[in-house]
Amino acid sequence: MTVYTGHCACGQVKYEINAEPLRMVNCHCRDCQRATGSAFAAILAFPRDAVKLTGELKFFSVTSERGTQLERGFCPHCGSPVAIWPAARPDTFYVTAASLDDPSLHKPTVNIWTRSAPPWDHFDRSIPHFETRPPS
Predict the structure, then answer these.
(1) CB neighbours of 16 closer than 8 A, spacing ≥ 6?
(2) What would the pLDDT profile of 64-86 be if each residue is shown by its tens digit?
(3) Count of Cβ atoms closer than 10 Å to residue 60 Cβ
(4) What is the CA radius of gyration of the chain?
(5) 16: DSSP letter
(6) Rounded to whole angstroms, how far apart are CA atoms 127 and 132?
(7) I need a surface site. Which of 83, 94, 98, 132 has the fewest CB within 10 A?
(8) pLDDT value, residue 133
């Protein structure tokens, strides 16, 4: 089993995760674009109880395009986005791939909310992609 570790830009928030990801996605929704300052958010989902977090995250709450509440966690010192805690899945802890010590561990299996992808975002169409979210 791979141990997933990561931190914010200044290193005051760190995490260690002793579990395999539940899913790895690239989300192209407008909220993820605004939160990352990019075309999409590369996100890995883990069981929340497998995460050991060191340091303090600050959170801001947003309503997703799906209509659910998301708590976006960032470092209060450097502002790096690190985590997402979705109200709809309280047992799940999402981390941003950019915060991983080894971001190459992010191997997305799906692109979601592609209807919001800008025309210059040439995402990998060889993996499944959905205009909104995948069917349950």
Answers:
(1) 3, 4, 5, 51, 52
(2) 777 888 999 999 999 999 999 98
(3) 10
(4) 14
(5) E
(6) 15
(7) 132
(8) 86
Quote the CA–CA distance of 102 and 97 in Å, as a whole number: 8
| CATH 2.170.150.70 corresponds to the domain 4-116 | yes
Domain boundaries of the chain, sorted by first residue: 4-116
- The answer to whether the predicted template modeling score (pTM) of the entire model surpasses 0.70 is yes
Per-residue pLDDT, 58: 96
CA distances from 13 to 87, 101, 107 (A): 22, 12, 23
DSSP output for 25-85: EEE--HHHHHHHTSS-EEEEEEEGGGEEEES--EEEEEE-TTS-EEEEEE-TTT--EEEEE
Distances from the Cα of 99 to the Cαs of 5, 108, 135, in angstroms? 9, 15, 28
- State the Cα–Cα distance between residues 80 and 99, nearest whole angstrom: 8
Distances (CA, A) of 107 to 22, 54, 97: 12, 25, 9
